[in-house]
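lol ok so funny story. i was supposed to be doing the assay writeup but got distracted and ended up predicting the structure for this chain instead. priorities right. anyway since i did it might as well share w the group, maybe its usefull for someone
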Amino acid sequence: MASKEGKSSLGYGKPPWIFRGSALYQLHLVKAEVARAFIPKELRLVEAFGYTLGGFFLASYDDSPVGRFDELVVIAGTVWNPPTSCAWASRVLVNSKEACVHGRKDVGLPSQVANFKKNIMAVPRKQSESKSSQFLNKMIGIATGDLGHPDNCMDIQIAETNVSSAKDMCSIRIGASSDLDPKKRIGPAIKLSLPSFSGHTPWNNHLLKYSCQIECRIRLAKSAKVTGPSVITPNIEEAEHHDKSSVIVDNSSDGEEDARKLSISVMLSKPVLALEFNCLTMQVEAPVVVSPSSPNNTNVRS
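and the output, tada:
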């Protein structure tokens, strides 16, 4: 594999690129047929009983090469990369034009500019803590605080934007911890690596691989509640039953809309685990080219 050549997008400078802030990493069980709509044919999906592991990475960066911005990475599924595996993003939404250009050009991501509208809501607090939360707190050492019973929560409404209109993507409701102990709120310090494949987009047709090196304080969180747009036509369930075995979303408006709707179906799939990253420092290395572009590597098409 060779490092991707070319200059970084304006404002980002040379890699590695450093991001600081906080994030929620939520894993979902995603239907394999939906994930295959995005996965290149040369990669093998990690699946069992018709499902793969996907979900989303929702981050709020206080500091980055282009300042503050929010990001939602929709993870369609997991693919084999022996001896481990890598994630594949079906859509990346950011409220920064510079971050969008950087994601498309430098990292090969399907980035889109979006609005992130945040609203904090008060929720009545319950007194008891679940037995599972007590076990995780005492035996495993990952603090959960009072996860099931937050004093308030945050609603984040995300809508993609373009020159003429905005399209609702989803709404994410996140519970806020009411634990007064700072150590329990932020959890233990860890280091981890999140490898990913990217590319095969209209802006970068190569198949790429890159890595995010993360240092943070981690804690188990209550799964965020995700709701989709009030109106989606055609229905997402209909889209899931189409034969998508050879789909690689194309440049057409219809193909792009299919990709958006299938990404919404990923967000609406069943959550299995949510991790909160606090005091986050993420270092993103320059992608390397796994395989060069070819005429057949167009983007999602039905």
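The first strand starts at residue 2 and ends at 3. The two ends are 30 Å apart (CA to CA).
back to the writeup now i swear
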